[in-house]
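Exercise 3.2. Students should predict the tertiary structure of the chain below and write it as structure tokens, then compare their answer with the key that follows.

Predict this chain's 3D structure.
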Amino acid sequence: MTKVFIVFLGLTIFVVSSSNAAVYKGQKEFIKQCRKCHTPAQGFVSSHTAAEWEKIFTNDGKNLVALHLKEKKAKAAWNYFKGKKYPKKVKHLRQFFMEYAKDSGNVPCL
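Answer key:
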């Protein structure tokens, strides 16, 4: 019985921890995909409050996609936002932006 409980506990911890977003993964994605256009990066990330970023990232980041797809300046990013990678990474990007929002008091090292 103890072995079953330990296996169950281990699987539960693994599933819960893997479903959470990670700030470092969001930062990595920001550097790879967003930093080209949004420089200086530190100023951009802290340009909005957490509530503003939350509004931008609603509907699984579809508001962020809409902002980029209506801008001709963001044409280089359209493939990223229309592709398969963005929906998988949006939770990490959201976590990164929330962590370093204007009202968070945190400063990203980019």
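Discussion points: Helices lie at 2-19, 23-34, 41-45, 50-56, 58-69, 78-82, 85-99. The first helix runs from residue 2 to 19.
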